[in-house]
Amino acid sequence: MTKLADDLDDMQRYLDRQVKRMDSVVDAIEARWQGLRPRRTDGIIARRPRKRFASGSS
């Protein structure tokens, strides 16, 4: 049982780090879209991001 609890703690820490990394990636992308004019990439103009909603909000 102790090993399982330790494994779950390790997994929770790992997932927490991954979420924080993804948050910073999303924040960097969002800042670029808001701060600079759209860039053309392969003939496609990047659009502004859709509004994100926090979980649990309506």
Keywords:
single chain, 58 residues, mainly alpha, two-stranded antiparallel ribbon, 59% helix
3D architecture notes:
The structure is a single chain. The chain has 58 residues and is mainly alpha-helical. Helices cover 59% and strands 7% of the residues. A hairpin with a 2-residue loop joins strand 1 and strand 2 (44-45). It contains 1 helix and 2 strands, in the order αββ. The chain has one helix at 2-35, and strands at 40-41, 44-45. Strands 1-2 form a two-stranded antiparallel sheet.
Task: Quickly describe the structure.
This protein has 58 residues and is mostly helical. It has one helix and two strands; from the N terminus they run H-E-E. The protein is 59% helix and 7% strand.
Shape: rod-shaped
Roughly what fraction of the amino acids lie in strands? 5-15%
**Low-pLDDT sequence parts:** none
SSE series:
HEE
Specify the biggest β-sheet. Answer: 2 strands, antiparallel
Report the mean per-residue pLDDT as an integer: 77
Structure classification: mainly alpha
Our measurement of the CA-to-CA distance between the termini, rounded to an integer number of angstroms, reads: 39 Å
The helix fraction, in percent, is: 55-70%
Separate helix tally: 1
SSE map:
Blueprint: H1 2-35, E1 40-41, E2 44-45
Antiparallel strand pairs: 1-2
